[in-house]
Design brief:
This protein is of the alpha/beta class. About 40% of the residues lie in helices and about 20% in strands. It has 2 domains: about 5-120, Rossmann fold, CATH 3.40.50; about 130-225, Arc Repressor Mutant, subunit A. It has helices at about 10-25, 35-40, 60-70, 85-95, 105-120, 155-165, 175-180, 190-205; strands at about 5-10, 30, 50-55, 75-80, 100, 130, 135-140, 145, 150, 215, 220-225. The strands form 3 sheets. It has a 5-stranded parallel beta sheet with strand order 2-1-3-4-5, with helices on both faces. The N and C termini lie far apart (about 40 Å).
Length: about 230
């Protein structure tokens, strides 16, 4: 199955270099130089991964992430020119699944994309729902219900919840969650876990500031209360 990657980058030289690197991996590449052009040509049915530069003319990469997330769970990797915590957290909060800081090596980009594709296409589980309080988690269906109502989680949030529910009551370190949910360790960053835990709490908790389900073990990681 051919992987379709949408590259959104306003610098033509960088965009061309990315296209050539991705095509060398055997992937089909679509290009856009602005958020508006990307949205005009975007379709969840023919896009497997979106690679978006944060700094774009007109609407920026944050706007693009939010717009895509209204209609699609397609994996998004944002690219930033600075290792700035504010930019990274803002991008993840806008709906990105991962990030890269310029300059980056083509091999690192390939590793990120492959990891995203693996976890977006497969979820380990069984046919039986996992019952945690008022939550019903259906790993094979990609569905979570609370009090009978379906919750709309991204694929990353869903996999994170499934990983925690595999071992209810057990503390999962950030490093473990990076390896299991994102599919890599040394490429990863604990901020990915923290931001997605925060987003997950907003969707499953009655009071995200005082979580009933996902608890923080200070200095250690997170656990799902049984």
């Amino acid at each position: 199955m051919t992987t379709n990657v949408l590259v959104v980058e306003d610098d033509e030289r960088i965009r061309t270099a990315l296209r050539l690197a991705l095509e060398d991996e055997g992937w089909r590449v679509s290009e856009a130089e602005s958020c508006e052009e990307a949205l005009e040509g975007f379709s969840p049915d023919n896009t497997d991964v979106v690679l978006v530069d944060i700094m774009l003319p007109g609407l920026d990469g944050f706007d693009l992430c939010r717009s895509i997330r209204r209609t699609s769970h397609v994996p998004i990797i944002m690219v930033t020119a600075r290792d700035d915590t504010h930019d990274i957290v803002a991008g993840l909060e806008a709906g990105a699944d991962d990030y890269l800081t310029k300059p980056f090596a083509p091999k690192e980009l390939s590793a990120r994309i492959r990891a995203l594709l693996r976890r977006s296409r497969t979820v380990d589980g069984n046919d039986l729902p996992r019952l945690i309080g008022d939550l019903e988690i259906y790993p094979d269906e990609g569905v979570v219900r609370k009090n009978g109502d379906e919750l709309h989680l991204t694929k990353t949030e869903f996999r994170l919840l499934c990983e925690l529910s595999d071992n209810p009551g057990k503390v999962m370190s950030r490093e473990h969650l990076l390896e299991r949910v994102w599919g890599y360790d040394y490429f990863g960053d604990g901020r990915l876990v923290d931001v997605h835990i925060r987003r997950l709490r907003l969707k499953i908790e009655d009071d995200p500031a005082s979580p009933r389900y996902v608890a923080t073990a200070r200095g250690m990681g997170y656990k799902l209360r049984a």
